[in-house]
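Here is one chain, start to finish.
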Amino acid sequence: MSIYVAYDIVRKLYAIRKLITDHNHAHGPAEYEMYSAHRQPAGPLQEQTVAMLRNGANPTLVTASLNQQRLHTRARDLYNMKNQL
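Its structure:
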C-alpha cells in the first residue's frame, strides 16, 4: 500500500494525491507460516528442543533438525529461546 500526499499552497492543507492499495510483497499461506508464532516448536518437540539447548546443543544444528521434521524455524528463534532459558 502506498499513499502519496502533497501540500496544496492555495488551500493551505495536505491532500492525498495518489492511493495504491496493491501489496508490494508476497502474501499468502506460505508467508503466514513464517510468522514467529508459527515457527516455535510445540508439545514434545518443544521439550526435546529445550533439552537439547540446555545441554549445549548448537542452535543452528537444532534448527536443521527441526527443518527436517517440517517445522520451518530459524536459527535466530532458537538463539532467542536459548537466551530465555
